[in-house]
# Entry
Amino acid sequence: MKKLLRAGFEHIEDGFDVLFGPKWNPFYQLGALGWFYYWIVIISGIYLYIFFDTGITEAYQSLDYLTYEQWYAGGIMRSLHRYASDALVIMMMIHLLREFAMDRFRSSRWFAWFTGVPMLWFVFSAGITGYWMVWDTLAQYIAIATTEWLDTLPLFGEAIARNFLSDTTLSGRFFTLMVFLHIALPLFLLFIMWIHIQRHASPRVNPPLELAAGTFIMLLVLSIAKPALSNAPADLATVPAVVGLDWFYMSIYPLLDYVPGLTVWILLVTATALLLLVPWLPPGQRNPVAVVNLDNCNGCSRCATDCPFSAITMEPRSDGSAYEHEAVVDASHCTSCGICAGACPTATPFRRRSDLSPGIELPDQPIKELREKTITASARLIGNDRVIVYGCQNSLNPEEMAGTGAGVVTMPCIGMLPPSFIDFVLSKKLADGVFLTGCRAGDCYFRLGIKWTDARIAGERDPRLRQRVGRERIGNFWAGLTRRKDFFRELAAFRMRLKNLASSQPEKQPPPAASENDREITHA
Amino acid sequence: MPELRYIVGQVIAFTLFAIGLGYFSNSPTYTHHDPEMALIKLSFSHASQHKEECRRLSPEEIAALAPNMRRPMDCPRERVPVLVEMTMDGNTLLRKSYAPTGLAHDGAASAYEKIPVTPGQHKLTVRLRDSNRDEGFDYEDGININLVPLQQFVIDFRNSSFQFY
Ligand code: HEM
Ligand code: SF4
Ligand code: SF4
# Structure
């Protein structure tokens, strides 16, 4: 079912790639959009608070003042506040579903999932208290329905819904409480949002400028076209029979008219508990985490810089070697992506085979094996368009790729490929070209693998691919699961280019092969 | 320079998103109460009388108690349930007993009832029993009201008397 969900997401996102381009695709930026909406809510909220009067009639009047007299500022702020809050809910729900569909919550990644769940409660409670403060007929409905619902819990001696029996007995203390909650809940939310991304190196908390601008302009236009308004003032002597609910926040309320309140509580609490447990539901296999081999670690800290999950710290040397630092892996943060091995300067296939144990690697998928697989895969290639495809284990099926006659080598994440392997394949003439593939651009399963790979090949990030390597013999297509057809087309086109290269420069000598001991990058 | 088609794409997608946001932020409306009906709410929080009267302890009984617990009277804390009966134009709308709250059943009994009724001229009568008696009621009150649709009419019981709002 999850496969289906994932394919569904990828198909929709393919469509959005056409509309937005991968860089601006909102689906790749859901968390960042959430933060963006949050900040809009906070800033507009502060503005509203300046003019807001706490009180049974004053609250409504002060909002009316903002909406009508000050429509150009306060009115727009009020609308932004509402619509950004609604957008936050949409973003959050899609984000939740997507992280689930993409399986990004297992093993060490449980942390973000687990801390995401309480945010649901905070966001919804914050929204509901917000509507309560307006004290119009919708607020009246919300106040009565919520307190009646709370009263189904055996917590309060006297029914708290009794506070909203009639205007003559209504007291202002509930409004003071609402204002307090409406400020405290979002602040708590911010705190959890901060915790939520603690295990991410360079988390995406800001959407790309163009996407932020687009989404902000959308909210602004909507705010002007359809300003957020109050309903009629609350009147406890009249039943607010027909209410225009904000369905993003209040979808649960109609249910309360059909299902006993206590049952709904039990449902919600059970659902929350199940959600919290999701990371540990089967199949819960956990791959072995990265292991440091101190004999080969020079303390350059590249692995720590590239680890997407902040699982590596640089600690003082423990083995008496002359280097100052060594890499240390925190097993509880490591997701077994192998990106650290791709970053390690000692992970070069040019080293003698017996030597090929880098400073850091995944014990079940060592770099030595990557080299052997490369050599084996290349052995049966023929012609002048021989291609080694390096792919990741989260996207296209390697067997399908091998059907094209290319030599296929996969690893957990393309970021595990040390760039020196490309040099190795081309300079040793193991193949005529190297083709890289993996998740879709902008949406690497291990967050940063594609980004680092692109930067390493472009020579913008250590370890850099050597200048001498002919870039025309390197191709890539970030395919994910769904873009099979495009992948095969791109691969065929790439091989055609290789053929053309061969016929246009038949007499040209290949670049000199590097010697066996040539280390790609010397110690820092 | 952003590609033109991406800008056009954004405009289309965001327009649809905005329409969805704007629409579902207050529509479609939800009707949770028949607009043709009025509503009677009966609610109170009332501490009824104790189940048993206080009893003077005999000297022997007092002596049998621990020294710091000795007292002349024994007052069981458990309260009786509160029984309420409400009729409208002679028909029974509600007859229900409310148990005292608390583990020892010594707290106030709490009621919160919502009864939709047809609008119009009505004679409402409420009776409440909060004592040990087997028959009859301790309190009774009535009111003639003209209910309009959507009117919420509240009956409370405070300070030993019915309140109508
Ligand atoms: C206000 C609501 C939320 C905000 C603002 C938010 C924000 C974020 C951000 C910024 C990231 C980092 C993305 C990256 O840099 O790759 C993230 C990751 C994540 N979020 Fe949320 N989130 C929210 C709610 C939730 C909820 C409700 C869940 C699920 C229960 C959830 C599950 C996750 C998971 C599993 C990841 C980790 C993905 C990974 O390891 O690559 N989040 N979130
Ligand atoms: S495999 Fe390496 S890069 Fe990936 S999470 Fe573990 S330590 Fe970090
Ligand atoms: S990248 Fe390799 S050499 Fe550098 S600190 Fe990490 S393990 Fe050590």
